[in-house]
Amino acid sequence: MRIGSYQLKNRVLLAPMAGITDQPFRRICARYGAGLTYSEMMSANPQVWHTEKSKLRLSHHQDAGINAVQIAGADPDEMAQAARVNVEYGAQIIDINMGCPAKKVNRRMAGSALLQYPDLVRRILEAVVNAVNVPVTLKIRTGWDRKNRNCVQIAKIAEQSGIQALTVHGRTRECLFEGEAEYDNIGAVKRQVSIPVIANGDITSARKALDVLNYTGADAIMIGRGALGNPWIFQSVAALVEADSIVSPPSLAEKCGVILHHIRALHRFYGEEKGYRIARKHVAWYLQGIQPNSGFKQTFNAITTAAGQLAALEDYFNLIQLDRETC
Prior knowledge:
Layout: E1 2-3, E2 6-7, E3 12-14, H1 23-31, E4 36-43, H2 52-58, E5 68-72, H3 76-88, E6 93-98, H4 103-106, H5 118-131, E7 136-143, H6 151-161, E8 165-172, H7 183-192, E9 197-200, H8 206-216, E10 220-223, H9 233-243, H10 252-270, H11 272-290, H12 296-301, H13 306-326
Parallel strand pairs: 3-4, 3-10, 4-5, 5-6, 6-7, 7-8, 8-9, 9-10
Antiparallel strand pairs: 1-2
């Protein structure tokens, strides 16, 4: 699959997720086969571009692959300038967020709130595409609510505006993350436009990914929540989708090693004080796939030092590996 001049290594992408897809997590997902990883959402508000938080979000490493940055906002001029600034910082692909359902984003008429205003959508897309010399992509939902599913209309506007690829999350803004993804509507979008269409929503296994690709006719799939605590999902999905092969999941020892590597990387990236706090949610997600009913989560969340977190994790992993070896 190509996005503009960029050839992706496969058709399995990591979704941009605020507070999650930072540089350490993107690097791990790329290591396990993600063909493209998107950064966390960046606001188009110029007052926040040079804050420490924004600098961390913009931080990229070659191990994460192509540098794709998502921006969000409602003013065409601000969005264009945000795109230019991000390209100056090294962004190789700009993604426009029109899919976020969060109230604090929608109150500023950004994210999925924009789907209510197709004319404004067109002005934003044209402004951003004309502002930069890198490919611009777009992420949307199927509509604002169940009575106003206008994803096909928005997709046609995107294609006419020069958008190079379109991701459709198969829910309306009203649905948030509830119910089942609307793959029929993603398929309808694919049939109406010629640009690459990326299917997103409820993809939590290799078999589901292949079924969604076959059902919708989409060019690629994007995994978001299915990668939380499960970055090796990209390895299994890519193998089945691209080579019709099945790969064994990593061993418990490998998973434990990856988790320790990830937590150390968070401590280094954010600094120990912030890093140990951010590590808590990732460890909780990892535990769901390793030892879901363990009381260790509460123990871990009470630890207030980076060194203490690592020591506790190493002891816990040694214990559960020993338990499984003796079963």
